[in-house]
Amino acid sequence: MKKLLLALFTFIIAQSSVFAQQHLLWMQQPSLSPDGKWLAFEYKGNLFKVPSAGGTAVPLTINSAYNGYPIWSHDGKTIAFASDRYGNFDVYTMPADGGSATRLTFSSDKDIPFDFSPDNQKVYFGTDRHDIYTSVRFPGNAYFMKMYVVPVKGGRSIMFNSAGTEYVHFNKTGDKFIYQDRKGYEDPWRKHHTSAVTRDIWVYDVPQKSYTKVSTYVGEDREPVWGSGDSFYYLSERNGNQNLYKSSLANTSSITQLTTFTKDPVRNLSRADDGLMAFTQNGELFTLREGGQPQKINISLSADFNGDQVQNMPVRGDATEIAVSPNGKEVALVYRGEIFVTSADGNITKRITNTPYQERMVQFSPDGRTLMYSVENAGSWDIYKTTLSVNSEPYFFAGTTLKSEPVVNTDKDEFQAVFSPDGKKIAYLEERNIVKVYDPATKKTVTVLPAGVNFSYSDGDQYFSWSPDSKYLLIQSEEGAFGRSEVALVKADGTGQRLNLTESGFDDGHAQWGLNGKMMYWLSDKLGMKNLSSGSQTDIYAMFFDQSAWDRFRLSKEDLDIRKQEEKRDSLDKVASKPTKSTPANAKTPAGVAPYAYEPNFKNLDDRVIRLTVGSASISDDVLSKDGEKLFYLAKYDKGYDLWQTMARTKETKVLAALNASGGSLELTPDGKSLFVLASGNVMKVNVEDGKITPVKINSTMDLDAAAERSYVFEHAWKQVGKKFFDPKLQGVDWNYYHTAYAQFLPHINNNYDFQILLSELLGELNGSHTGGRYSPVFPNADQTGALGLLYDQSKGGNGLVVTDIITGGPFDVARTKMRKGYVIDKIDGDAITDDSDWAKLLNHKVDKYTLISFHDPKTNTQYQENVKPVSPSFERSVLLYNRWVKRMERMTDSLSNGQVGYVHVQGMNDPSYRVTFDKVLGKNYGKKALIVDTRFNGGGWLHDDLVTFLGGKKYMELRPQGHPTEGGESLGKWNKPSCVLMSEGNYSDAFIFPWAYKELKLGKLIGMPVAGTGTAVWWERQIDGTLVFGIPMVSTWGIGATHPTENAQVEPDIKVQNDYNKVLSGEDQQLETAVKEMLKTVK
Fold first, then answer.
1. What single DSSP character describes residue 537?
2. Is the pTM of this model over 0.90?
3. Which of 302, 382, 399, 809 might form a disulfide with 409, Cβ 3.0–4.6 angstroms?
4. Which residues make up the annotated site Transition state stabilizer (predicted)?
5. Which domains does the chain have, with CATH numbers?
């Protein structure tokens, strides 16, 4: 099996670099010309057109950006498309026969073209810009694409509709458009799920300003296009696999299925005026005329176009791991899944591995001549080693001949190997949860921690360390539970019982040996502040296995000095004495610490425990000096992680080196004089005496075969998800079939946008939440439209920009400003705002830079000028607009209930959101008689139990100081009055579990719309290409006595309320109004 997978992977990599001259695959976003003669599509990041009957494709764009989403003008002369040439998708146009492209939009928001106006003079496009100012819908711009229109000749973009529309197509007369909606978060390539969040088809009547839903299936209905008259075509999963259907406005219940593919969904529907339709299916392009059969189009290119090239790229930072050699003169590091070794000063760097797959978890052997690491190259993770072959060559960074060979390689996953201190054995993980010890000399393996004790969540979350005498291992052990760990001790020969050393109800882990094995030190959160969603602050503790070492460690500095003088005197006395026959004169004690000459004492261990740190913090790594006197650790008390030092005996604590890093790791050099630190991807050397930082400036290069790397990531994702998916049976999916089905497309992909779709299509076959690929491109100088903290009337043109609201907390929310609602912005840094230009480009790259805004009062024509610093668009969206929305909800609740009902929105299932909830509920809402807990568009986290506990308070005791009745009482710190929960299709993950639990515990009513069953814990795994991640839903949740998990089991509201488009956009929230009415019924 392993050889078969290796051969298949090798074939995929080889094919990734071979051009398929005869037939293209994985073409995206096909678009038929109005006369049906031509078909435009995206392939390998560029636009092509080909006769609709097939043939040789002609490139329309030739550049390194991504160019896609083509649409034709109604006269067939122009093509509009989207391109990310400036770091985000903007709308462009070009002649249909090819030529120069014209940029039409300049906002750093995402813009995707939908359709041309009937006269071909304008382009309608979807964008994630702000909602209309009157709207009371949650400000989730990424959820709801607003529709704008821009002149083909260029100019100002005007808002046309803000409902949240996708795949928009106008009818011939332009008085209606058809679209698919979006109600919340779910990967768009997920398949076969049926829930309230799936897409539906709607029609908007422009003159009547009315919305009509024209599809009714509980699963996916999407990508509509108009037919003749009032008929329309769309894609639906109503009969299992996604196929093409037809219906009409006159009779939406009459539905005709036009294709009957049993596997692999139909995607990317397009239709020409003559009735010809085009779509993709299983990576192919098809055409279809109603009443006929789908015709596969054979498309070729005359030459390899935009093929992947091996790139030579710099290696200067972004390391993910380091390992210091035993002599401290070289450092191994991992960058983009490859292993390098550099001299300690960074002047010479050598690439050790050169593969398209991933190597990680590197370690030096005790003699420094071997590197051991984990590699995933033949169907599973294996343990390999690379050794210096020439005896006279002491360093890897200068080595000329290296030998690489497997150490442990079976069909199972084996990784995270660690040499024993004597170099004779290797401890490692098997299948992520089992700890084994391998003896290379005898080729024998023993299990020291069996299956069923630990449950790995993400790779790298398990930890173990060897004792200095190579007899024992300290292991992070969950003891068969899930969610917290202990520190356990096992014998390396596999005999005896596992000994739980910590026996704590708190979380304990990352245990290391100190004082030559006479003690251990580890991390524990028993005294740290707990993050209410997940995680907590920790301290470093020590436990002693030797009474003498414990006694010595507890001596004061003064008493230790006295003890040292006594020991020195005793030592001189021994030297003066004559050697005996049993003690040869040439007998020597090894250099360094005293030899390991005792048996560890495991009795009464809790009497020999001490806290080493003086304050709890978030600690990412730690190391104790060999003499046990100095403790070094990377800790975050406020903003970033710094390198701290605590004198273990006196508890004197200081910042040794200020790093303000995002985390990292550290290693002490053998001489104890320096620390090598990996922080925020950078390697540095820190002097332990004065904290001086010396950067290890890596300056190297590597050849990157991007196609081979993507092939590896594909293989890795398929295997990883197959092993860690929450359902071991993969929900009955033929996973091997889909591996073959999707692997064939890899040679036709040269960019991560298309690769992300491939990953999402593959993982979407499992019909699970939290799946799919994610791509976050990095552009060094991407456009960024500065935000002024204002809302505007975007529905009108003309000169200037009318301000409709000043957002609290924004640049104009200051006492000195003259800006008011209704005022008109005329110029930005002296450039006039007119219909001839997109005013967004006037704010490009202006974030946090003084910008001159010229504006006037239209009633008095008084002119003003003010200098402000624009904020980032993400800050305006996620903070300012969110706070504005919450305050509007609070005011509406207060007004509708006459001050009797409180309101709180839980933004995320996390610690900051809980603290806001606690503060508001028991603060400004303390005297309210009932409470509305709004969770709409909460994306999840892990807070459900804290929330239901907080809302489930029962008053069982009153507190009366000096006999006076008070509002307080027990249970103190909980809400003990009536409440209800607002929810919507936009709830996800733990924001599903919370209303589910709230209903199970009968705490109150659920109001709003159903929430899809997405209560599964996920690991979003970042790839060796750091711009890519994919999701693995791993841990399912089950109700007590349930026969199936909550995944895909929708939670229904007690009172179902769907917000009407027109009402919510004009300022009326029907769901909130219903909640207020329901809560007023409980008021006595």
1. -
2. yes
3. 382
4. 990
5. 420-560+601-616 (2.120.10.30), 790-871 (2.30.42.10), 898-1013+1050-1080 (3.90.226.10)
